[in-house]
Target: Phytocyanin domain-containing protein
Amino acid sequence: MFFVGDNLVFNYQEGVHNVLKVNGTGFKQCAAPAGTVPLTSGNDVINLSTPGRKWYICGAPNHCAVGGQKLAITVMPSSFAPGASPVSVISVTAPSPSPTAGCS
Model:
């Protein structure tokens, strides 16, 4: 479960993947609105500061639509968090790209 105050960390190979925050439609269509700025560090930390649904996709060609590199979460209010535990860090690591066969 995710709670307000948690940090979501995306770990991936810089230059191969990126992270785009999208809405539900963008998530379903694997498409970000024009002007969406990608996160590209390879170690992106997103503080989950508000409750509700959140959607993220990889914007590299075909990584979302074909490779399934997308994430949908629901962030619960901090009042739902069990006890007074420290802030959680949830890490998402992208798989290494598979080798592609050359054409003859």
About this structure: Helices lie at 24-29. The chain has one domain: 2-93.
